[in-house]
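Need residues for this backbone.
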């Protein structure tokens, strides 16, 4: 039997600690079913369609980690294939740490948190930059006021959804505005219904 995809995170040392602390049996059962997911499915696509924020993890050739925030309009991370994601990389502070890290070490990690729905997704894989204008055009969100410097292509090796424990529930401003507008519309409708019923009674 081939090694489960979850071995990308569950190293022998991790498994030893899981055994010591009593969680190995449940993860072993998961591994018997194949481990983490590898192909993009509807659940992942639905979360990506809502995402306007993500964290990209890279490391130097020596293993020094680095985390960088990436954001854009909802759905800025696009599905390009069964196991490939991509997004436009906009001009920023021009430190190019992620760019340099990926030139030396293609291993990468994406972390997405949906605070409103208390869900998080971890994605392991390999990433690379492209300066192909056709790829830019495919990944640049319509009407977004930003200048793309490159396109980041992310080939998925494994992904997993975490439990919602300890995630504080937060809402983006646009979601709050939409919810308040819906509430106000409902209040206006109810007031109109009340006024109509009062008119019928008199």
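Answer:
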């Amino acid at each position: 039997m081939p090694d489960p995809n979850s071995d990308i995170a569950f190293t022998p040392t991790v498994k030893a600690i899981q055994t010591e602390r009593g969680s190995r049996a449940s993860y072993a059962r998961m591994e018997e079913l194949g481990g983490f997911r590898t192909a993009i499915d509807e659940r992942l696509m639905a979360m990506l369609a809502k995402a306007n924020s993500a964290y990209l993890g890279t490391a130097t050739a020596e293993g020094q980690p680095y985390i960088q925030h990436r954001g854009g309009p909802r759905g800025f991370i696009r599905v390009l294939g069964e196991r490939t994601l991509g997004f436009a990389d906009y001009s920023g502070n021009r430190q190019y740490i992620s760019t340099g890290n990926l030139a030396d070490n293609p291993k990468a990690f994406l972390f997405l948190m949906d605070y409103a729905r208390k869900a998080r997704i971890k994605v392991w894989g390999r990433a690379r930059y492209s300066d192909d204008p056709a790829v830019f055009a495919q990944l640049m969100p319509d009407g977004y006021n930003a200048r793309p410097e490159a396109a980041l292509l992310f080939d998925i090796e494994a992904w997993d959804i975490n439990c919602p424990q300890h995630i504080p529930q937060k809402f983006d401003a646009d979601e709050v505005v939409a919810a308040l507008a819906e509430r106000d519309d409902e209040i206006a409708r109810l007031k109109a219904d009340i006024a109509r019923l009062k008119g019928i009674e008199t």
